[in-house]
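Suppose a colleague, Dr. K., hands you the sequence of a protein chain of 313 amino acids and asks what its three-dimensional shape might be. Before reaching for any lab equipment, you can write down a predicted structure in token form. Begin with the sequence itself:
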Amino acid sequence: MIVALAGGVGGARLAVGLAAVLPPQRLTVVVNTGDDFEHLGLSICPDLDTVMYTLAGLNNPALGWGRADETWSFMETLQALGGETWFRLGDRDLAVHVLRTAALARGERLSDITRTLTQRFGIAHAVVPMSDDRVRTVVLTNEGELAFQDYFVRRRCAPAVSGFRFEGAEDAEMPQALRAIVDGDVEAVVVCPSNPFVSIAPMLAVPAIREWLERRTFPVVAVSPIVGGDAVKGPAAKMMRELGVDASASGVARHYGSLVDAWVIDERDASEARAIAALGKRVRVTDTLMTDTAKSAALAEAVLEVAGEASRG
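The predicted structure, expressed as tokens, is then:
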């Protein structure tokens, strides 16, 4: 079993590549839920939905979120009536949120709801939330503490970041669907090129997930989310600079430290391979920009090769 830790567009794109080269019984995608929030009475899970829509081939590549062929009648009517429109919900997207909210209200677990939705979207590979318990990312900024979606969407990442809190993480449990996998034969963990601070860190803040990785007997391979000194998409590089972390592939490697055994970095950052190797890490240099499914699959193949090399020592 390969377990991929994913969040956001980068995580979703690598999940597509891994799903293209691995059969369903060999891949589980664990998704960040720190971005989740309640809006307009609905339970919204942005990262879960991004991964789900992308695996189903229904994502909106132009926006980077939501569904393709979307319509916006609901938002247009809401705006005309004076409602909140800062977080846009498409008409097709709304159906998922309504079904999820109703199921949660009935007491169903988020992992069970996610399994039902992915099956209905025709996704064969397992997609599992990091926890069935409520975890919320709070961003510490020069303007005070902000709920993640307030920072990310309403404020468009403008405030300067000084840190993060993950409310509820200390008491969050690993979902049973994930527990059954990690107690089995895991070949490797892949850390997707997702934001280290708000996509991967919330997962690592769940004690059972962190402890599982710390006592691992398998390699952890990560793909750098920083290419040429910047994030491919999103505020990761901005956050790194504001936190005093070098916004580079080697800076990301130092940030993860002993939790990652091997790195896959972009060919634009080949000059940093030596610095990462000096940290005692295996390094593979390749093209990491996933502009289509074929390139996602090629990157996935490279990641799996590195995992195989690392497991053999």
